């Protein structure tokens, strides 16, 4: 996008944010009745729904994946055809979807205490309704909240955030315009309380000297996100607790 | 509650003796419906419907294309319903289930028979350029009666569509899109669907939940428009139904239609 300033001289990005500012986040737990756990997250204009089914008995066609000592995860990532500015019909099992599904599955395999659910299956379904950058991160955050809603044992929350480097300054939580530019894009998922990185992916070129600054910025972004997610979970629990005591 | 899961048919009969259903509704009562339009900004038109707990979202994307040879002056509307494993444990991951395909075909037939949008309005230049509206519906939570919810979502989304004006340059023959001016299409009829199902060959219930769908057989769906005309009636499988019962269904569908049309009008502005 020639002529578009990703970072103005005054230090503001295209959407008016500062480099270390996250987009507006709205999240809600327990949005579906059919799924065992569900969540909806909005990060700016990126809207993602997550539904969790499980732990449950393994599917017929997945019998070969059953483990006697732990559960196996099945993750499906789908992006609605109307989620991007250009309509793109995505067939089931296309490469990008598979790629995302595998990354998300690996992230949660490291977090969920799978040894507590032997011989079962946990399904994570993600539906992107509107994609405006940081799709992977929004999916991880939504799935994390949905797993908490489903009551599945995890080591910690998983919070993910993306970052890029513009004019020497790291900018976090990038939107679609910033993603499509020439800059490098780093996505990181962390366990906030344990301070561990469970997933990181870097697209594009970044000088090795610049990497520590970008990682610091993105980890701070994840921790800010953790505060929002934790608050949402506690509010949701308080609401549910009051309905129990009143009924 | 446990009895409802262990012996669904027997316990349902005890409810029906009192002329009431487990969720407290009367036999011909439909669930509360919530409609929200325009929430997806990347789509040209969108609508989200919550019928009880059944949630369906519809996003419409408009593209330009060359018209078909049979109808050179008409645009195309393509509906597609998706019911994935996300919406209920009834569905397994994989290719679209039979139910999703049936609903897609139903919506396709409905659009053809009802002309909610006059496809001639979608024509930019005869023989050269027409609009095609891709309407993608996704069922997010399936608690029975996705059909009624899909019809409502589709029509409301079409009502919500705003497309930029396209003019064709006479000299070069190239289309010129004016992104500033966006206009909506005139939608007519405001069709509304009501689905009924038959329990035990004797009782007709309107707007079944998922648990009720599992223990009943045979569906009848009646679609009415704003002038109380019958646009589309579909009777699927199951048991035979006497004419008097059909008339009851049609009458209830007309009443339900006028209730739903208030929703369309409320979001139309």
From TrEMBL, chain B:
Residues 29-164, 189-255 form the Exoribonuclease phosphorolytic domain. Keywords: Cytoplasm, Exosome, Nucleus, RNA-binding, rRNA processing. It comes from the Eukaryota. It comes from Clavelina lepadiformis (Light-bulb sea squirt). It is found in: Cytoplasm; Nucleus, Nucleolus. The keyword Ribonucleoprotein does not apply. Belongs to the RNase PH family. The keyword rRNA processing applies. This is Ribosomal RNA-processing protein 43. Pfam families: RNase_PH, RNase_PH_C.
